[in-house]
Amino acid sequence: MDQDTVSISRRALADFVRAHRLRLTPAAVGLAAGARRRTPGLRREEVAQLSGISATWYTWIEQARGVSVSPGALARLCATLRLSPAERAYLFELAGKRDPAMPPSPGTMDAPPALVAAVNAVGSPAYLLDRLWQARAWNAAAAGLFTGWLDTPAGDRNLLRYMFRNPGARTLVVDWEDRARRLLAEFRLEQGRHLDDAEMAALVAELRRQSPFFRAAWEEQVVVEREGGLRIFDHPTLGPLQFEQVAFNLASRPEFKLVILVEIQGATPHIKS
Questions:
Q1: CA 200, CA 206: separation in Å to the nearest integer?
Q2: What gap in Å lies between CA 59 and CA 47, rounded to an integer?
């Protein structure tokens, strides 16, 4: 995160915390209102005392200064300010900390039936990835496109293993080296959000051992946001294919990502679903 982004996050955190402090009445936290209050809400010192943190540190938070507060102290601050779950998640995001109340990453799981039905309802190639980038659902159009990954009755459905260990990926995906590097940089961002995830760490360690290209690309330390764009394939039976990829994070199930490849009209043959 660059310095400008850090400064913006600190300012946003300061404004957010201050606004919620001013919304709280003394009565809401069991304090006497007193006769000398000239502004609404709680005083900074009161919030700090109720949260069990230094008044100086709390003041620095509201001043957008570079103070690092522990996740535990932030959790107590959230409780003092009576934040909702969404507000609490927002505060931890701005602070760049992991909420200690956040449950550990779920184990590998199948996609809910409704998500599977949604994937199958899409006419274009579509698939659903879990947090390990394991395909949990895909439609017939995706199976027709991704030979060696989604077209077999059984097999490894992990997208990273397919890209870095399956020779067929190198011939199917045009500009394979660039695409593989980009894919890995996107996954590094995901992995950085789950540094305590043992399964994710094990997957990275496995691919570092088994793929020299993965190991070299991983050591480049490149991180990018996941995004769509042009995807070009050289299909073994259909020939050259071009799609625009769009990806969605699912609000109700954030551990899943929906990826859809929309055919560029006039550029490729149609893959029937």
A1: 10
A2: 10
Q: Measuring CA to CA, how many Å separate 64 from each of 9, 18, 67, 98, 187?
A: 9, 11, 8, 19, 31
Separation between Cα atoms, residue 254 and residue 115, nearest integer Å: 12
Q: Name the strands in the sheet holding 257-263, side by side, starting at the edge strand that comes first in the sequence.
A: 135-138, 126-129, 257-263, 239-249, 229-235
**Residue pair 125/261 in contact by the 8 Å Cβ criterion:** yes
- Give the C-alpha separation, 244 to 125, whole Å: 11
Q: In this structure, what DSSP letter does residue 197 have?
A: -
Question: Per residue in 4-50, pLDDT tens?
Answer: 666 888 898 999 999 999 988 887 877 776 656 666 789 899 999 99
Q: Which of 21, 22, 163, 6 is nearest to 94 (CA)?
A: 6
8 A C-beta contact, residue 17 and residue 23: no
- Per-residue pLDDT of 151-190, as tens digits, reads 987 778 999 999 999 999 999 999 999 999 999 999 988 8
Give the DSSP letter of residue 28: G
Residue 129: CA atoms inside 13 Å, Cβ hemisphere, count?
19
- Token pair recorded at residue 14: 């300061």
